[in-house]
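in:
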């Protein structure tokens, strides 16, 4: 069904310099598999050794494997915001790691990736993680009635998702704006202020826990795991962590099967590899890395199931599959799950420094694979792209009209790079880590003066202070950002500092 907004977008004049030079539009199915906290070095096809990822490796072999692709941020909410809106998240103050009861941070009247595809006749679906807020700012959300605005109001016709993260309440599934399996006489209350009801918490009942957690993750216990935040009620609606991957996968496969005869866009946002890492028992021991590796093996298996679904339905040649992750890897992230003790010499961020939460490359340099057998010629590419570019690129591919001035000011059309018709990507991009914004231009990375953090393996923040005039790194020779060349190339530093300022100012108003 077309909402008034969808119709409005359909008649918006063409995208400024973006979709304008689009090749003849085509309408392949599009599946965007968006993993959580999976690092550049976690997959075999990116040099990872700790866990076998045969299905993702096969996907990479059949498509383009980007070595210079980025999430816009080193944490989840801002990266996902950029992916769906085509805007850098620093342009929206609200786009920071959200609690599970935060209001929606995407403006429903602005273009989004799924809404643009809807204008081209796509049926759009979200399965998995959301973490972009639900409900509106002015009214506290009632989890026991219709939950809106949310995914449906920003372009997803079908949605089956968690509110925020696996480690945050409410630990329930939401399908098309309703908590699933909610019983009317057991209403849900959620608070991030303090305990609600008499449910045990990690602090009051640590002996009930499957995995011990830090203070922050010691709120309400759901399914033997304490979470961030507090909830009461909804007993029948609460999820079982170990079953979550199968539950999401079943919905994703169902969405593909039901929509096999029309163009579909599936945003499949997996829980793996976020905490709590509680893989299904059949994946326990699947890797040599403990639960963190086992969860990646589980993710890889799920990708295999999706690819097999496409094959069985004879959709492989008519489906563009993109795989990426929302931010870099982390070992300890609140639960004492053995991830760092079992990590051995596995390098989850590959050759890059830092990981999740960090402004070093490991925070945002992502695995990124685009496969469309018969259309994309396989091979690796160094073309630089950002996930923020998917909106303009997929609009160009499908012939959707988007007006950059109406929102997606940061999204560049790089569909030719994605489809293997060009080796040219972005000339520059901004990376965000909390309040720190850095610039990559060609082979160079510039970090303005300030504090750059990195989490050590037990979760402690190790901060390095970068003095005036900032840090300048030549990535091809120094992927680990060890040699600050700012004093050697002062003109380059000045130029990149100005460019960064310009990028930060552009389109912010
Ligand atoms: C942090 C949590 C972390 C994780 C992260 C969100 C603490 C101490 N840490 O605030 O465990 O939930 O938020 O991860 O609370 S993300 O991938 O969704 O950005
Ligand atoms: Ca994440």
């Amino acid at each position: 069904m077309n909402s008034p907004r969808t119709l409005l977008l359909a008649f918006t004049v063409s995208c400024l310099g973006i979709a304008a030079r689009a090749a003849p539009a085509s309408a392949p199915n599009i599946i965007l598999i968006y993993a959580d906290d999976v690092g550049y070095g976690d997959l075999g096809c990116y040099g990872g050794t700790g866990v076998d990822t045969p299905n993702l490796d096969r996907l990479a072999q059949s498509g383009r494997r980007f070595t210079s692709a980025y999430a816009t941020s080193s944490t989840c909410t801002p990266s996902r915001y950029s992916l769906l809106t085509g805007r850098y998240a620093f342009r929206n103050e609200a786009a920071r790691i959200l609690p599970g009861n935060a209001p929606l941070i995407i403006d429903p009247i602005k273009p989004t990736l799924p809404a643009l595809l809807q204008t081209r006749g796509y049926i759009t679906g979200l399965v998995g993680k959301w973490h972009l807020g639900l409900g509106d700012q002015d009214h506290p959300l009632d989890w026991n009635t219709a939950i809106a605005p949310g995914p449906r109001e920003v372009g997803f016709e079908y949605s089956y998702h968690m509110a925020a993260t696996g480690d945050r309440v409410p630990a329930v599934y939401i399908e098309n704006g309703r908590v699933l399996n909610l019983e009317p006489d057991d209403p849900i209350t959620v608070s991030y202020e303090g305990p609600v009801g008499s449910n045990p918490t990690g602090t009051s009942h640590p002996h009930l826990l499957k995995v011990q957690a830090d203070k922050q993750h010691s709120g309400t216990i759901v399914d033997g795991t304490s979470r961030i935040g507090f909830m009461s009620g909804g007993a029948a609606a609460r999820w079982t962590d170990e079953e979550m991957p199968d539950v999401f996968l079943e919905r994703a496969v169902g969405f593909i099967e039901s929509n096999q005869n029309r163009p579909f866009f599936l945003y499949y946002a997996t829980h793996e590899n976020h905490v709590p890492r509680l893989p299904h028992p059949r994946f326990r021991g699947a890797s040599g890395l403990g639960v963190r590796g086992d969860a990646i093996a589980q993710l890889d298996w799920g990708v295999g199931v999706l690819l097999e679904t496409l094959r069985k339905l004879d959709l492989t040649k008519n489906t563009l599959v993109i795989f990426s992750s929302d931010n870099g890897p982390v070992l300890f992230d609140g639960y004492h799950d053995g991830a760092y003790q079992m990590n051995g010499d596995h390098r989850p961020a590959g050759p890059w420094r830092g990981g999740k939460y960090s402004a070093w490359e490991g925070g945002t340099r992502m695995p990124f694979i685009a496969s469309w057998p018969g259309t994309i010629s396989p091979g690796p590419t160094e073309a630089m792209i950002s996930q923020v570019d998917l909106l303009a690129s997929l609009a160009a591919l499908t012939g959707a009209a988007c007006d950059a001035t109406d929102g997606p000011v940061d999204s560049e059309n790089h569909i030719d790079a994605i489809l293997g018709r060009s080796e040219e990507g972005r000339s520059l991009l901004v990376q965000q880590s909390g309040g720190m914004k850095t610039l990559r231009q060609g082979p160079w990375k510039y970090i303005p003066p300030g504090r750059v953090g990195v989490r050590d393996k037990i979760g402690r923040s190790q901060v390095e202070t970068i003095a005036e005039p900032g840090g300048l790194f030549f990535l091809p020779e120094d992927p680990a950002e060890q040699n600050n060349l700012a004093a050697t190339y002062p003109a380059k530093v000045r130029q990149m500092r100005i460019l960064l300022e310009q990028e930060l100012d552009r389109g912010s108003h």
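note: Residues 4-188+233-418 form a domain with the Alkaline Phosphatase, subunit A fold (CATH 3.40.720.10).
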